[in-house]
């Protein structure tokens, strides 16, 4: 094997050289960067050691897997127990399809987090901290005597913190969690500590219960371990030696009723500069020690495996109003914190600021904000200073009233935040249609900025992690960015919601974590198996599949328990009791139902989601090799429910919206018929009629449920209708968002819904990433890349036969990027690169009995010629030719 066959991109639990791992048997992953045809893995060997000089077959002192026959580019560690806080080194080699070994990889590392008994710190807080005074500052001096070899901080806060060392910001965190399942973060701070006095500074915020913020108590926990080159070590913990004071925030009203965050009014005179640096000498208060960890309510600490990253964005333009106010335009909507540097502050001068989505001269305080109060205020001290609030919002414009000086663009910025995805350009798409390309970019950046400490509903109002929103965004991030850890964490959190609130009924929370605790939506619960399955197809994450399976089974049982014995339909599916979600949401906001007839106990959408949940439960059971009886249970129940749907909800031509035991609706919505197509429930005799109805309806599904419409168009092979739906700027959809100047996907379409009043439109989110799902279907339908079977090592490439003249791009997989470029004239000219260790079926439109592969004419349905390596078969499928290929680059041309 050549050096190109050496494993690269080594990852532990989907991260490169992570610290703070609490999985006792972490999964190790790799890939090989080769385009050699038929290149695949046949065996693997992994060595794990306590030091890099022990990474040899004879010296590995932790674990030697031995040579194992496996095609999977991943292995679960199954050596001796791993020690808390320790770093481990590992290498891997693989054997290829001819059983030839590669060179050993370069070393990679992972570091374990702390176990429960390793915590020495106490939970502390400022006495009297509550929601009316949520911001506190803490400091502690640390004397460093000697050369630091390694330093780690382990930190947790209820709810959020900013950590600095010697005045330099080190980290912001962490993800919101219930206190009995509290997250902590592990940080490498070796480079931040110097000889002599060092100061740990923390700004802590507790906002109380709200959307995405569970009920808890204010608290802070930190443990710093310093290892010196001379073998000494010291540990610093939160205890009664810390000092605290109230932050410089002034009491203010909440921004809205959802997030429990106050309008941030900061008095720059209340906290002297340098408070978090050495040499600061002011008498602060003693902290309140709540108790040694664990203490009520913090029962358990769980390592957080996701990060939020930050970047600075300056305005694209500035406009000075006659009133003296200055409006800064950042060109697009971003989630972040406005930062303003004042070079000549006047002591006591109050500066008013307002963020927003729209402006008519001044920045609007209502349009697009969902009734969120987007104001800020800053009271200056004399001289140079910086206004920097704690919490983020989504906005495009920032208005500053009476700043006291002529601010330049360089003095104003947004500290933009988003989840630290592996590669924000891991996937790419370019086509012959510029409007389509703009839609793709709109979806890409919306998905990126919809990822914060979780998959947020919107960065402006709720900021909570709704199950359907999270599923929709996760569909995009796993493909567009190669993201894994945020999706994995979100799925696990919703699994926890089942055990916390719904174990007896088989449901999941609609939003989790959350201040109002127990809240569900029927279709959200039904959609969970689909999310688990889609995530697994892309990631090959068997551990999450195993974790989620009992809940998937419970969801299937939840559906089955509601089946009426007389009709065989799901009737009045329990959920959303006493609110607008009861018995089935159909779509959201309400105007996005487009007149769906909900006045029936058996809703077609609920029943079709049930059909799909049972189908996905079976797929997952098969992937996990569950007993045949379990697989048969899901299969039989799906078939029975599907037959009942056709019998009672299909009028012979179309699917109606609902029924009871005696009558049915006379309204055939796009929702009902698109879902029937997407789930494969339409009788063969009605497929064309149902498809025509769905296509001719244009856009009559909202951004929340639109992926099922896109799935329907994919399933029914209507690429021209797909392109038209995406690019028609005069009708509801993504192109119309662009036409109206939108730069982030919206919560609802605005142009084609007569019932949507101007006031209602103003109360809809204009930064709602759930609408970004269009990106995944562009990859699937127009680039033609689909994930097949039970993992991403089996692909299907099918360029469309209409709608576009050309497209190119790439999509990441666990084994590398799949690359596709095609153009159509009389036939298709397609070039495709299949990554290492992967197979694909390439389907190209053709009715000819011959095609050209790599300049060689090949007869269809004949054995491939010997000189065409990597090709297993060339088959006629009726209106297309299917070519089965392995790793490598291929050019296929049809007449």
TrEMBL record:
Any Gene Ontology biological process: carbohydrate metabolic process
Q: Which reaction does it catalyse?
A: Hydrolysis of terminal non-reducing alpha-L-rhamnose residues in alpha-L-rhamnosides
SUPFAM superfamilies xref list = Six-hairpin glycosidases (SSF48208)
Gene Ontology molecular-function annotations: alpha-L-rhamnosidase activity
What InterPro entries does this protein map onto?
A: 6-hairpin_glycosidase_sf, 6hp_glycosidase-like_sf, Alpha_rhamnosid, Bac_rhamnosid6H, Bac_rhamnosid_C, Bac_rhamnosid_N, Ig-like_fold, Rhamnosid_concanavalin
- Which residue intervals are annotated with compositional bias (Basic and acidic residues) in the record? 1-14
Q: Which residues form the Bacterial alpha-L-rhamnosidase N-terminal domain?
A: 148-290
What keywords appear on the UniProt entry? Answer: Hydrolase, Plasmid
Q: Which residues form a coiled coil?
A: none
Where does the record place the region Disordered? 1-22
Q: Where is the Alpha-L-rhamnosidase C-terminal domain?
A: 793-850
Which Pfam families does this entry report, sorted A to Z?
Answer: Bac_rhamnosid (PF05592), Bac_rhamnosid6H (PF17389), Bac_rhamnosid_C (PF17390), Bac_rhamnosid_N (PF08531), Ig_Rha78A_N (PF25788)
Q: What class of enzyme is it?
A: hydrolase
Protein name per UniProt: alpha-L-rhamnosidase
